[in-house]
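=== Per-residue structure ===
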Amino acid sequence: MRTLFIIFIMQLSFTSVAQHNFSKEFSLVSDNDLYTSIVRDRYYTNGLFLTYRTVKNDGSKYNPKKIKQFQIGQLMYTSVNPNLTNASLQDRPFAGYLYGSYGLNWYYHTNTILATELQIGVIGPSAKGYELQNFLHGLYNYPKPMGWRHQINNAFALNLNIKYLHNFSEISNHYFDFSSYNNLKAGTIFTSLSSGLYSRVGLKKLQPFTNSVAFNSNLNHTAKSYDESFLFIKPMLSYALYDATIEGSFLNNSNPVVFNVMPFYFLLEIGYRFYKKHFSYGYTYTYHTQKAKSLNITKSNNYGSIYVGYYFN
């Protein structure tokens, strides 16, 4: 956190407006509760996402900009203590989810965004959740996470995610904007509906929806992108119908530890993003209320996310 704070302060000194023109991006996102606490290691404990994006067209007054993306992702979930070997003491299932995905996003000049993603993968031991966490624990000299012997069993994963954002231009300006944010997930891993708000506070002039790192839209063939530096906040209310990392997959119901999902939960993201020339980076703090119905489960959880992106042609 100290390093991120120093970097954040340094970026406030950049006041020049620079123009760039890049059509491709590689990015890496790392989620971990270690980024908010050095002693907490529970629930959604780690996520890694490697993404390649490229712009199909820059869009026009009458046609939306289109950006496609390819992603490999892995998510890991554990109980309150990853070293619990007694299944009856676990308050959340251990689960790994590994997938590859293709996404296509439309950016309209009416300041609306439609983003789609299709994920194909696997949940269970084949997702290698135990192997990765055991490796990470070895790096920090932590005990082996033995609770994985009771993890969710293998099952095929197919999930469709759709996001829709709309900007309230009447109450937005060059240094503050306010938008609605909606997210639908449907498939064999997650089925849920989320709705909330997304707001940016610019430390520089905010870029439009069609050309901002906030929405992964700052890729262009001929148009220019501009340096960005802003804070953001995103409160969301979610209704979960199904979560295979908690209930186990309906394609394989022979799981040692499962719970019912908490239908409604609240999620809050607060973060910072910066973009200059070839690189962008950011940090997000995420808080959410209870997601699994367990008498012993902690009523809330939080984790951090670090984003690094590289742009090129």
